[in-house]
Amino acid sequence: MTDAVLKQARIHAGIWEGLLSGAVGTPRLEAMHLDLPLAGVIVAEVAGEPGLWSVRVPIPGQALSEGVQTFVIRDVQSGVQLAHFTVITGVAMEEDFRAEMDLLRAELDLLKRAFRRHCVETTG
Questions:
Q1: Hey, CA dihedral for 30, 49, 9, 84, is it positive or negative?
Q2: Each residue's pLDDT tens digit, 63-81
Q3: What is the DSSP string of 20-57?
Q4: Number of H helices, E strands in the chain
Q5: Neighbouring C-beta atoms of residue 86, cutoff 10 Å
Q6: Phi and psi at residue 102, to the nearest 5°
Q7: Do residues 42 and 56 make contact, with C-beta atoms less than 8 angstroms apart?
Q8: What is the pLDDT of residue 103?
Q9: 109: number of Cβ within 10 Å
Q10: Could you give the 3-state DSSP secondary structure of residue 113?
């Protein structure tokens, strides 16, 4: 299943949903979290769309804890990773990438204002 492409459609009501195309035959997929398989993965052919498969992965509550959790979806036979998704829960951490980006933006805005003020003071 080397030409297969799995694209995320959405996460809704605790279920990751995606569409798989390019699979030869009926695909067998597994979802993993911390190297443990998740139960309840559903792969079903989309009606009226030959070669297009709906993939649903229930996200178990016990897999969700503070921080970033990464889930991997792969082909059972080949072991090839087709997709992954992350879920972030809990209080934002200082080391969180998004928090760091916000801090960098704020610092950049501060530097821009200081530089503009400096330019006005030295040229005026």
A1: positive
A2: 998 888 999 999 999 889 9
A3: EES-SSS--EEEEETTEEPS--EEEEPTT-TTEEEEEE
A4: 1, 8
A5: 8
A6: -60, -40
A7: yes
A8: 74
A9: 10
A10: helix
The two structure tokens encoding residue 22: 């390019």
Residue 16 in tokens: 């990751």
Q: What is the pTM of this model?
A: 0.73
Q: How far apart (Å, rounded) are the C-alpha atoms in residues 63 and 39?
A: 12
Grade residue 93 by pLDDT with cuts at 50, 70 and 90: low
Please state the separation of Cα 109 from the chain's center in Å: 30
* Alpha-carbon distances of 1 from 81, 103, 105, rounded to whole Å: 11, 43, 43
Backbone angles phi, psi at 28, to 5 degrees: -120, 110
Q: Tokens 């960098």 correspond to what residue?
A: 104
Tokens representing residue 18 in the block: 């995606």
Q: Take residue 11 and report the two structure tokens written for it.
A: 């996460």
Residue written as tokens 């934002």?
A: 92
Q: Enter the tokens of residue 111.
A: 């530097």
